[in-house]
Amino acid sequence: MTKLMRLALLAVIAVASVGCDQLTKTLAQERLQQGEVHSYLGDTVRVQLAHNYGAFLSLGASLSEEWRQGLWSIGVGIVLICMLGYALFARLMDRPTLIALALIVAGGASNLYDRLIYGGYVIDFLNVGLGPVRTGIFNVADMGIMAGAFIMLWSTLRGPKLRN
Question: Could you give the residue numbers annotated as active site?
Answer without folding.
Answer: 124, 142
